[in-house]
């Protein structure tokens, strides 16, 4: 479970979230939706313990980041993007390392098969396409077996076939009792896979169940204002 208590998040002088008091139970896929520059990555970094909140705090499975830092961090897996992968190592190397570091019982070879990575599992990261690198990232999340998975735009670079494969893997992870929070601009896919949706708007986190028209909700929040479109 993730609990937010009087949480305030800022980026420099800009307030991202003024006050948040909510909680998320396990076994959910949650979409994080907002225009670029709204603070999605900052929110994920705060949950991951990388960025200190301006006020308030987050608890994960009853653990506080400040007084129980090591145990708190064991609850989370978070890599911001494929730039954090090691260019000269392979997907297999990354998977083996993740399994060892997280003391995981997940079989890397099973994840390779699920993500259909056999043809490039032993190729250095620097030679892979963006979509292939995204598969490596997502595979590392699955292998970590961490209770809370935080993903920043994990669907970038995925073709329709890859998107379906990744969605199936995320559903499988959720069924094992995990909580997944991922940011995305693909509203159709958010509606397809998520149980709840978080909108960042006007310094608030607005939580909606995934029974509404996500595009309509997005338009009402962000296009009803005086927005200058490119």
UniProtKB/TrEMBL annotation:
Transmembrane segments: none annotated. The keyword Transport applies. InterPro entries: AAA+_ATPase, ABC_transporter-like_ATP-bd, ABC_Transporter_VariousFunc, P-loop_NTPase. Residues 2-227 form the ABC transporter domain. SUPFAM superfamilies: P-loop containing nucleoside triphosphate hydrolases. One of its GO terms (molecular function) is ATP binding. Keywords: ATP-binding, Nucleotide-binding, Transport. It comes from the Bacteria. The keyword Metal-binding does not apply. This is ABC-2 type transport system ATP-binding protein. It comes from Trichococcus flocculiformis. The lineage of its organism: Bacteria, Bacillati, Bacillota, Bacilli, Lactobacillales.
């Amino acid at each position: 479970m993730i609990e937010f208590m009087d949480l305030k998040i800022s980026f420099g002088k800009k307030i991202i979230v003024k006050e948040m008091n909510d909680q998320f139970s396990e076994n959910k896929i949650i979409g994080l939706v907002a225009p670029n520059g709204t603070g999605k990555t900052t929110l994920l970094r705060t949950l991951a313990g990388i960025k200190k909140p301006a006020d308030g705090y987050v608890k994960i499975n009853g653990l506080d980041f400040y007084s129980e830092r090591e145990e708190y961090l064991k609850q989370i897996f978070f890599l911001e993007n494929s730039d954090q992968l090691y260019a000269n190592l392979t997907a297999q190397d990354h998977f083996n390392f993740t399994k060892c570091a997280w003391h995981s019982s997940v079989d890397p070879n099973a994840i390779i098969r699920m993500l259909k990575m056999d043809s490039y599992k032993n190729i250095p990261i620097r030679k892979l396409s963006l979509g292939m690198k995204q598969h490596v990232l997502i595979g590392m999340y699955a292998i970590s077996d961490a209770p809370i998975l935080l993903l920043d735009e994990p669907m970038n670079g995925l073709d329709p076939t890859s998107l379906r494969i990744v969605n199936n893997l995320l559903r499988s992870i959720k069924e094992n009792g995990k909580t997944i929070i991922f940011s995305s601009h693909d509203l159709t896919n958010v509606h397809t896979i998520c149980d709840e949706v978080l909108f960042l708007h006007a310094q608030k986190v607005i939580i909606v169940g995934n029974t509404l028209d996500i595009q309509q909700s997005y338009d009402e929040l962000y296009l009803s204002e005086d927005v200058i479109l490119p």
